[in-house]
Amino acid sequence: MNTNRLSKTIEAALNVQMTKEAHASQIYLSYGAWADGQSYGGVANFLFRHAQEERNHMMKILEYILKRGGEVKVAAIPAPPANPSSLNDCFQKIFQHEVDNTTSVYSVVKLSLTEEDWATWNFMQWFVKEQTEEETLALDLLDKFKIAGGDKADHEALYNLDKDMATKPDEAKDARDATADKP
Ligand code: OFO
């Protein structure tokens, strides 16, 4: 009796996405270490926290594969890319990484739609929402940098930005929660 409720293609796609989330965690970890080395302790704190969040994403997919009777394949995690060349570069790379991950999430959603695997489609909707938030969060980093003066930001502006990042919430606000009173 086949107790695997995932098709082979869906199972493979989920395993790939699981490793992508682990890779995302490594990226945030390495950028966090880079930021700390550049004396941006607040930015590092935010990135380290986010590395944990990506590990959580990985675990969600791992659990889902298991709960559907599928086989988890823990694969090697590719090395993170080279260190950013500046804070601006770091934030731009984070944004691009999130956009790329969104594309990857969408491909699993598309596959589940094609195969009419509604359980996986439903499960992946959490990731669709999460990616919207993650892109907002990354855009917010770019905005903060711009407001601080961009590449011309002085020490005081960078100091304040860094301080701010240490307490920056892990989640961005969802547009669906906005009201006229609380935009
Ligand atoms: Fe897992 O959300 Fe970012 O990459």
Biggest β-sheet description: none
Tell me, briefly, the overall form.
elongated
Rounded mean pLDDT score: 96
Give the CATH topology.
Answer: Ferritin
So what's the CATH class? Mainly Alpha
Number of contiguous helices: 5
- Helix/strand order, N-terminal first: HHHHH
Radius of gyration: 18 Å
According to DSSP, the number of beta strands is: 0
Compute the number of structural domains: 1
CATH superfamily: Ferritin, core subunit, four-helix bundle
The CATH architecture can be named as: Up-down Bundle
Strand content: under 5%
The helix content is: 55-70%
What is the structure about, briefly put?
The chain is mostly helical. The chain is 69% helix and 0% strand. It has one domain (8-168): Up-down Bundle (Ferritin), CATH 1.20.1260.
Describe this protein with a few key phrases:
Ferritin; 5 helices
Describe the structure.
This protein is mostly helical. It has a single domain (8-168), classed as Ferritin (Up-down Bundle). Helices cover 69% and strands 0% of the residues. The chain is built from 5 helices and no strands. It has helices spanning 8-37, 41-67, 87-114, 118-147, 155-166. Bound molecules: hydroxy diiron-OXO moiety. Residues 21, 24, 54, 57, 98, 101, 130, 134 line the site of hydroxy diiron-OXO moiety.
Write the topology of this structure.
Layout: H1 8-37, H2 41-67, H3 87-114, H4 118-147, H5 155-166
The protein binds hydroxy diiron-OXO moiety.
Hydroxy diiron-OXO moiety binds at residues 21, 24, 54, 57, 98, 101, 130, 134.
